[in-house]
Amino acid sequence: xxxxxxxxxxxxxxxxxxxxxxxxxxxxxxxxxxxxxxxxxxxxxxxxxxxxxxxxxxxxxxxxxxxxxxxxxxxxxxxxxxxxxxxxxxxxxxxxxxxxxxxxxxxxxxxxxxxxxxxxxxxxxxxxxxxxxxxxxxxxxxxxxxxxxxxxxxxxxxxxxxxxxxxxxxxxxxxxxxxxxxxxxxxxxxxxxxxxxxxxxxxxxxxxxxxxxxxxxxxxxxxxxxxxxxxxxxxxxxxxxxxxxxxxxxxxxxxxxxxxxxxxxxxxxxxxxxxxxxxxxxxxxxxxxxxxxxxxxxxxxxxxxxxxxxxxxxxxxxxxxxxxxxxxxxxxxxxxxxxxxxxxxxxxxxxxxxxxxxxxxxxxxxxxxxxxxxxxxxxxxxxxxxxxxxxxxxxxxxxxxxxxxxxxxxxxxxxxxxxxxxxxxxxxxxxxxxxxxxxxxxxxxxxxxxxxxxxxxxxxxxxxxxxxxxxxxxxxxxxxxxxxxxxxxxxxxxxxxxxxxxxxxxxxxxxxxxxxxxxxxxxxxxxxxxxxxxx
Length: 535
Hints:
By secondary structure, the protein is α/β, with parallel strands linked by helices. It folds into 3 domains: about 1-100 and about 230-270 and about 460-505, ATPase, nucleotide binding domain (Nucleotidyltransferase, domain 5), CATH 3.30.420.40; about 100-165 and about 190-225, ATPase, nucleotide binding domain (Nucleotidyltransferase, domain 5); about 275-440 and about 505-535, Nucleotidyltransferase, domain 5 (2-Layer Sandwich), CATH 3.30.420.40. It has a 7-stranded mixed sheet, sandwiched between helices. A 5-stranded mixed sheet has the order 3-2-1-6-13. Helix 10 packs across helix 16 and helix 15 crosses helix 18. Belongs to the FGGY kinase family. One of its GO terms (biological process) is carbohydrate metabolic process. InterPro entries: ATPase_NBD, FGGY_C, FGGY_Carb_Kinase, FGGY_N. This is ATPase. GO terms for molecular function: kinase activity.
C-alpha cells in the first residue's frame, strides 16, 4: 500500500475516503478508497435474478439485503485489516445495471416488479420509438419499457408518479433526491449533448404520441433530474444511513455523487472517458464502448448511443450473453473432477481450462457454440438456447472446445464492432478490458484482441470494476480542483503511471476469429431452430 497503516486509519476515521457500491448482475460489490484513490478494502454479496411471470427481476427485499450485506462485508474487512470502524466517509456513490424499469405511485409504492435490462419484451416499443425519434432505442432502455407497458394497456401506467432505474432508486431512498447521472440517464432516454439533459424535442414527441390516452401525467412529470459528474447529488439522510448500515454506526450528512450505470463506471475504472478511448466489460453480459470523435452517420439498431459520466457521446455494442454458459461448463468439469475424487480449487479450474484455449486451432477446429442463456438483440433472438454443435470432421478436443466457448462469448459483441469499424470508420487507439473474462492473466486479453483486431490492455485495478469506478466519481466530486475535468482528474490523480499491460492482436488469431465468425453467422439458423423447437 502506498499509505502507512496509521495514515490509513486516520484517513478512515477522518472521512478522507470514498465508498462506491455497484449492483451487478450476479454480485453487489462495495469498495472503500483512500485519499490517493486506491482501494483500501472491499466487500461483496452474491445474488441472482429470478424469472417470475416471464420477467427477469430482483425483489426489493433482495436489493436491500444485498446492499446491506455487501456494505457490512466491506466494514468487516476494514476492521480486520485496520482495526477501525467506519462512521463517516467523504463521499458515497451508487451504480447499478443500466436501463430497466422501476415505477412508483404517489405514495412511493412499487407498481410492478422491477424489470431488468435482461428482458427482451419491448420489441414493438423499441421499434416504434426508434422510428419516432430517429434515434436508437434498444429494448433494454427504460423508455422502451414504459412505452411497451402503455402498448400492453397495463393498469399501473395511469398511477405512475416516478420512473427510475436501480441505481436511481437506491440513491432516492438514501437521499430523497430523484436524480440520475448523465451516463445512467443516457440509457433511460436520449440525451441532448448541448444541454446535458434529456432531449426536450423527443420528450415533446413522446407526449404527443401518448396524448390520446389522456393520462394524468406527461413524461417530464415522472422523469428524474440529470446531473453530470462532479455535481453534488444530495446527502445521506438519517433514514438513509440506517437503511445502508443496519448497525447504526454510519453517520448521516455524507454527500452522494450522481448515481451512475455500470457502463459509465466501467469507463471511469478503465480511464476510458476521452475521445478515441474504449473499454470492454466482459462478464455475465458483455459490452464494448468507444468515446466518439463525431456522431454516427445513421441509426443502427445494434448500436446504443450513451454518454460518459461527463456527457461525451459514446457508441456501445452490447450483448446480453457472455460467460454464463462457459461458467456452466466449468461447473460441469468441476462435478466430473469431484466424481473422480479430485477436489480442485475453482480458480485453478478456470486458469487451467482458459489457458488450454490458447493452444487450440486458430478457428477452433470447426466447432460452433452459442452461449445464449437469454435472448440476444444483436442477432435478433427474443429467447436463447445454449448450444454446442460440430460436424463429423471437426477437430473435437478440449483445447478447441474451450477456445470456441471463449470465442462465442464475444460473437455478438463483434457483430456490433464490425458496424463501427467497417461502416462508420470509428477509430480507437486501445481497448481497456475489465470484468470476469480477464481474471485469468493474458487469456481474455488475447481472445479480445483477436476478436476486435485492436490492442487490448488490462490494468491491475480492473478487477475492482465498477464499484471502484463509482467511488472515483465520489472522490472527483469532493476533491476536484475548480474547473478540473474528469479526464484530467483521472489522468493526473488516479491513473498516472498505470497504463496496464497491452497485448497486440496476433494475425493468426485474428484470421481464426474471422473464420469462426463466418461459421457463427451461418449457424444462427441452427440457434433459431433450437429456440423454435426446444421449449
